[in-house]
Amino acid sequence: MIHQASTTAPVNIATLKYWGKRDPALNLPTNNSISVTLSQDDLRTLTTASCSPDFTQDELWLNGKQEDVSGKRLVACFRELRALRHKMEDSDSSLPKLADQKLKIVSENNFPTAAGLASSAAGFAALIRAVANLYELQETPEQLSIVARQGSGSACRSLYGGYVAWEMGTESDGSDSRAVQIATADHWPEMRAAILVVSADKKDTSSTTGMQVTVHTSPLFKERVTTVVPERFAQMKKSILDRDFPTFAELTMRDSNQFHATCLDSYPPIFYLNDVSRASIRVVEAINKAAGATIAAYTFDAGPNCVIYYEDKNEELVLGALKAILGRVEGWEKHQSVDAKKIDVDERWESELANGIQRVILTKVGGDPVKTAESLINEDGSLKNSK
Amino acid sequence: MIHQASTTAPVNIATLKYWGKRDPALNLPTNNSISVTLSQDDLRTLTTASCSPDFTQDELWLNGKQEDVSGKRLVACFRELRALRHKMEDSDSSLPKLADQKLKIVSENNFPTAAGLASSAAGFAALIRAVANLYELQETPEQLSIVARQGSGSACRSLYGGYVAWEMGTESDGSDSRAVQIATADHWPEMRAAILVVSADKKDTSSTTGMQVTVHTSPLFKERVTTVVPERFAQMKKSILDRDFPTFAELTMRDSNQFHATCLDSYPPIFYLNDVSRASIRVVEAINKAAGATIAAYTFDAGPNCVIYYEDKNEELVLGALKAILGRVEGWEKHQSVDAKKIDVDERWESELANGIQRVILTKVGGDPVKTAESLINEDGSLKNSK
């Protein structure tokens, strides 16, 4: 007999970047960060967590492939979740004894890993949420975010929909380093995101390694975390609460640039932006110029893909300009009605973009993780056929 | 009847970068900088300065093309040089009255402008030196550097051979913002430079514009000029005096990276490095890894070309590795004897470099500007046929 519970969890894309840990073991960051949670209609991880007295070992399956469960981050998450369940079982002896059973977790993304989107945030958020559901934990998303953070820093922000802050905290044990919701998706539902997925580009440096190289070698990094980010954090929060897109957009672009600047100031230097990323930036600038206002904002995580935030009312302008350049790539299916509309942009940026982007993902701000009846595990504990 | 004098002047490539003016009109920089002067055998500007009572206007000819002489930088240089000559003529009435005659300046580079090398430094240095020779000015190179600085900031460093510092000074009139020689070329004659010239890439932003965008918009820039550069300046000077290549090299690479990081932290961001530049950096890192020591240093000015400094004793290793990738491009004529020697480097960097570099220029540290009998102006004041 097995117990099981399933959830989906969203991807989030930071607008104020997390880069640098003050405590690598606990994933405690050097600065606050902010992100927008994206719609699970387009990008989500589906995870089923199960446990059974018959299971003989903890197991984790990602996209049909069994993964190692001995990594210290996963071990920490399992340990913390079991501790919370133990506490419940200790205080109510009528509860089934699940905490000591082995766990089998099965997880699938609805987007290709090849898209180069950081899937670890959605993955760990879904895992934490699914096990919390399985264990019927009463902890709030904020409390669970402290567990998720230990799996993957930015995962803590995927426990909420909408607009989310990760407050770095000050405690050395990490007990106050957690995600809080700045606003729900409904507060500012007009937010859209267009992701330009760059054709194969091997990742330069893993973000886990890269951020610590920056912490230890960039002379400019300290200035960023001590002086620049605290001010930006307050300004960006306010711009979200005010639904002030131009301010939100400029802060987002400046912060992406500065994060990549500290990568370049690292030694040896770290590069995530390539010539296609640079072209994406110039095209977004051209869109804003054509509009005579800041209606689109680029941001880049630890890779060359460009995420462009914009508001629904400017969809024709933003997507029209992108379609004029990228109309032939995959991803326009749901936006057939948008007319390509050529804007004034340097020919070299246009061709760099046209040649370098393999697909677009068009999505929007989205909600919290969602419990689902869809399961990836059969009643007998075996895996359902993965798609 | 005309008076004339000719000189050659060298190119210099900064190892501690000049980026940012505290006074744009006077070209007063926000920080000290350091450069290596390159050999005039390979890269030089030849300039003839002449004056005659018959000339009716000031004229400037660059590479066979007449240039505008009303630009305020050129006007400032002419004014300062004439003031110095006036002082001489006022104190010695036997001297010919040259200061009030119109000037005709003719200048030619021995390297293609298309090479994308900053030619304004050598150009203004040669102009100042040629007119100073014509006027028989007794000012030292240090004093003339104050005039050259007003033409083009980095030109002040091209009035000396060897290893040169531009001390930013503190006076508001710029009277102490000048070049001083840290060491002659003979102090460390083993220094070599390989310039990897990138195939056509339109310049992103002019350096004159770009540096002021950085000054006004990069939150990290102030930290660079107030904290990082002062320390680096002292360390780099010492590494030159000690002929300590590994230290000199690491400081050079870190400073190039940081300069470009502040460009990226500007708003809108400025990009001079492209994917070919990035590949150049990775190849230099691979050379150092293969050598098990820091034997080569990359540096980039406001463009994608890579300048690699190394010492003569490592020529086989450094040029051998470059020849294995770039053996087919122009520029190896004087280095036929170097054997291509493949090092371990990621295939994508290798092909990015092989496809993106159009020629190499192989040179070394060189000396001061040199008076020459070679003239670009006939006795009757007409221009000699340019090559």
From TrEMBL, chains A, B:
Domain Diphosphomevalonate decarboxylase-like N-terminal residue range list: 9-179
Record keywords, A-Z: ATP-binding, Kinase, Lipid biosynthesis, Lipid metabolism, Lyase, Nucleotide-binding, Steroid biosynthesis, Steroid metabolism, Sterol biosynthesis, Sterol metabolism, Transferase
Documented EC number(s): 4.1.1.33
Pathway: Isoprenoid biosynthesis; isopentenyl diphosphate biosynthesis via mevalonate pathway; isopentenyl diphosphate from (R)-mevalonate: step 3/3
Reactions it catalyzes: (R)-5-diphosphomevalonate + ATP = isopentenyl diphosphate + ADP + phosphate + CO2
InterPro entries, per database record: GHMP_kinase_C_sf, Mev_decarb, Mev_diP_decarb, MVD-like_N, Mvd1_C, Ribosomal_Su5_D2-typ_SF, Ribsml_uS5_D2-typ_fold_subgr
GO biological process: isopentenyl diphosphate biosynthetic process, mevalonate pathway; sterol biosynthetic process
Chain ranges of the Mvd1 C-terminal domain: 194-370
Lipid biosynthesis keyword on record: yes
Homology family: Belongs to the diphosphomevalonate decarboxylase family.
Name used for this protein in its record: Diphosphomevalonate decarboxylase
Species, as recorded: Yarrowia lipolytica (Candida lipolytica)
